[in-house]
Amino acid sequence: MLGRNRVWDKNKIESTLWPVDHEIISGLPLGNAVGGDKWAWYFDSKGIYKVRSGYRAIMDSQWSESSSSDSPDALWWRKLWRLPIPLKARLFVWRAFHEILPTMVSLRSRGIECDVVCPRCQAVLESPSHAIFDCPFSYMVWKKSRFWKVLENKRAMPFADFLRSLSLEISLDDLALVCWLAWKLWCERNKVVHRGEAGDPQTIFDLSIASFGEWQALNRSPSQPSAVGSNVWSLPQPGCFKLNIDASVIPGSDHIGIGAVIRDEKGSILGAMARSVGGSFSPFVAECLALREGLRFAKEIECVDIEVETDSINVVSTVEDNRELSLEGPILEDVKQLFAQVRSTGIHHIRRSANLVANLLARFGFNSNCINVWVNEIPSVVSNAVAIDIID
Ligand SMILES: [Zn+2]
Description:
This protein is α/β, with parallel strands linked by helices.
């Protein structure tokens, strides 16, 4: 299936395989290293099977089967599963969503003899939304949070409607905190019901916020650092060069664009490159390809001591990982070798606004059917952006 220069032989793929496989095969990036076939677990970023990721894949497939992929519920479940909170808290949210929390109303409906009124306020029936939001004991805690304005009009809604609606209005991190607080309030409710211990709203709120921060600090994956990086492009260190790279991807297209630019300590361009690469790649794989092609270009024009910048934070965090079995593994292996060959001083994340020249080159490359290279000259397509970078 491989043609010359280690690219997929499009004609052979189309004449041998089913149409459904054409796009999948042409989206598999190829590295330089030649080796035998290996088994890899598709659902893990490193291609390694773990029971946890197997369980998650099954749950994801069950949820996506139970609701169409575009429905608000499907969107909600995708968000829930990725929330940075403990599994226990996610299961609590899942139970509340399906109205199967053991509230008094729920226990009675399962045939258990009990009083259905709220055991704390003794005022109304205890449903999940009452226990978590509307009961004065919970209400006082929510009132102290910055979400109060958003929650105030929704607190009487059934829990599922409340979450569906909320997930469209607030960020994922905020949704995680709302779910965390809801879970903590359910734990507080249980303390009152089972042990007769009622906490003070301010203390409950303060401890919940503090424990959320602690859990986040301990469990946030180092491969998902928060988005940081400069807003404006800066000159490389004296005696070094800076390589900026970017990729241009349009979903459904059969190719991507790649842009790379290398500048010296004065901001002058040593070289720039813009090209298209055939294949239907994800944005992440496209950024990995841009990194490899940018480093290859630097090597070809014999530029060393290079600092690399990209606006893809995922690329920065995966370069150092061992991802031999992942989809992008072959490219990252090439990247590691190229890093050594150009004596790279490291790769850093910058915001898109600081990567404008590479971004324009990638877009130019997307619309071009040849490899465009400029050495010691400014490509006219980026002349304004280059000037702005130096002024800033
Ligand atoms: Zn109550």
